[in-house]
């Protein structure tokens, strides 16, 4: 969430910044000026009357010493009227403050000045490419055909269990998924210094509000219920480990010397993907349930951009150690996620599509999430608490990594070579048909 005071004092500047995202983003603050003006007026009037009440309360002592009972009673009656007026103003101010917060909960983050202008994916800037696209002397097949021929990937049985956009992995397919998860967790903990955490997969609405999924993206979530579907205590299945891991420190004040704090977590993720996405409808690219290893960092705000580069490099290392061809793109302002201030996408090469597809988004949120979740830090024992900056990125999306291996490492005989980094865990150097 944006700082309400900053928005009120720089409304047109903020609207211009949001306009870099889209006209709709800028429109999220339409008529907000009247709301902020009402709040300022209520604050001014309330503080004026409170000062008057304090001054007149002090004068009560002088009247008492003078023994003027009539004047004392008259002053007490005046103070009663004044206190009632202040109480009413405070109630009105509280209502306006709630309205301001509700309005700001629907306003996206401001793009960082270093984010390129643009309206969508076509305007993203490719920063670098790693490795080379594999060369085939045969027509490369899509991963769903490769997996089905190997007997390791089954969508039909998953559909009978759960409907569309689910999958079942068998044998070496399931083992490859598990090997990837362990490989990523070990890499990030042993080489990159992250602390592994294991969190609940069900969270309260407050956690989703803290990271920015609620209230705007309610329709994208799976919500549970007990006996009452409108139960306010209902829990949500997490759409990403970002939600529980970031909220581990919600409402806390961290020690400044402990920053940066870095966590890595494996979780399944659950998203109610709607509509048609062309080739995304088939295969593992867009599923209701999928696995991810997530990286989350808590840092001092002035270090956020430097930390984003570090986090991105950690995600890239996974692809490099697996020998997978990929590129890194800087998202333009119009393609940023709701809470993101700046994002790099890692896009892996899929030969069957002749295109790069996202496998990780690494984002800096500045203080946006921390303000919603009230995550602060203190530099000194008696220093004033300040908001941290939060960052997260997939390190990596496990299913999409499996897809990239099946496609980039497929062989003419139908087998799939296993990247060397995974061979000990897999117990073989390739997955073969039959």
The overall pLDDT average reads 94
CATH class of the largest domain: Alpha Beta
CATH superfamily of the largest domain: Bira Bifunctional Protein, Domain 2
CATH domain fold name of the largest domain: BirA Bifunctional Protein, domain 2
Counted beta strands:
17
The portion of residues forming beta strands comes to: 15-25%
Helix/strand structural class: alpha+beta
Could you name the ranges where pLDDT drops below 50 across 5 or more consecutive residues? none
Distance between the termini: 53 Å
Tally of helical segments: 14
Number of separate structural domains: 2
Spatial order of the strands in the main sheet? 1-10-11-12-15-9-8-4
Helix content: 40-55%
As a whole number of angstroms, the C-alpha radius of gyration is: 27 Å
CATH architectural label of the largest domain? 2-Layer Sandwich
Give a summary of the structure in a few sentences:
The chain is α+β, with helices and mostly antiparallel strands and 434 residues long. It is built from 14 helices and 17 strands. The chain folds into two domains: 4-105, Helix Hairpins; 121-431, BirA Bifunctional Protein, domain 2, CATH 3.30.930.10.
What can you tell me about this protein's structure?
The protein has 434 residues and is α+β, with helices and mostly antiparallel strands. The chain has 2 domains: 4-105, Helix Hairpins (Orthogonal Bundle); 121-431, Bira Bifunctional Protein, Domain 2 (BirA Bifunctional Protein, domain 2, 2-Layer Sandwich), CATH 3.30.930. It is 41% helix and 19% strand. The protein is built from 14 helices and 17 strands. The two termini are 53 Å apart. The model has no long low-confidence stretch (mean pLDDT 94).
């Amino acid at each position: 969430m944006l700082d309400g005071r900053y928005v009120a004092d720089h409304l047109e500047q903020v609207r211009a910044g949001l306009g870099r995202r889209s006209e709709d983003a800028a429109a999220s603050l339409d008529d907000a000026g009247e709301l902020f003006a009402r709040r300022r007026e209520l604050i001014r009037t309330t503080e004026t009357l409170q000062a008057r009440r304090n001054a007149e309360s002090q004068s009560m002592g002088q009247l008492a010493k003078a023994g003027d009972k009539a004047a004392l009673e008259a002053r007490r009656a005046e103070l009663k009227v004044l206190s009632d007026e202040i109480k009413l103003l405070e109630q009105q101010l509280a209502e306006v403050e709630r309205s301001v917060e509700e309005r700001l909960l629907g306003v996206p983050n401001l793009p960082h000045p270093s984010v390129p202008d643009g309206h969508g994916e076509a305007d993203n800037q490719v920063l670098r490419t790693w490795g080379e696209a594999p060369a085939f002397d045969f027509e490369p097949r899509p991963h769903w055909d490769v997996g089905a021929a190997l007997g390791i990937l089954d969508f039909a049985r998953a559909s009978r269990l759960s409907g569309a956009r689910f999958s079942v992995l068998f044998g070496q397919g399931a083992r490859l998924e598990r090997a990837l998860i362990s490989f990523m967790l070990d890499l990030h903990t042993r080489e990159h210094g992250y602390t592994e955490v294991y969190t609940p997969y069900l969270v309260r609405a407050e956690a989703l509000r803290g990271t920015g999924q609620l209230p705007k993206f309610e329709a994208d979530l799976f919500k549970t219920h007990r006996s009452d579907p409108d139960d306010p205590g209902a829990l949500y299945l997490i759409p990403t480990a970002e939600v529980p891991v970031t909220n581990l420190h919600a409402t806390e004040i961290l020690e400044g010397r402990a920053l940066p704090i870095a966590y890595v977590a494996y979780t399944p993720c659950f998203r109610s993907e709607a509509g048609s996405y062309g080739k995304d409808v088939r295969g593992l690219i867009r599923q209701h349930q999928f696995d991810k290893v997530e990286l989350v960092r808590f840092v001092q705000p002035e270090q956020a951009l430097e930390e984003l580069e570090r986090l991105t490099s950690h995600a890239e290392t996974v692809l490099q150690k697996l020998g997978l061809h990929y590129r890194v793109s800087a998202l333009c302002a119009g393609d940023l996620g709701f809470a993101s201030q700046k994002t790099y996408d890692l896009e892996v090469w899929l030969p069957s599509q002749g295109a790069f597809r996202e496998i990780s988004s690494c984002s800096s949120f500045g203080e946006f999430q921390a303000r919603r979740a009230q995550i602060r830090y203190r530099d000194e024992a008696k220093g004033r608490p300040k908001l941290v900056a939060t960052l997260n990125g997939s390190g990596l999306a496990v299913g999409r990594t499996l897809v990239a291996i099946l496609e980039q490492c497929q062989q003419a005989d139908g087998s799939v070579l296993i990247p060397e980094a995974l061979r000990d865990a897999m117990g073989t150097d390739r997955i073969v048909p039959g």
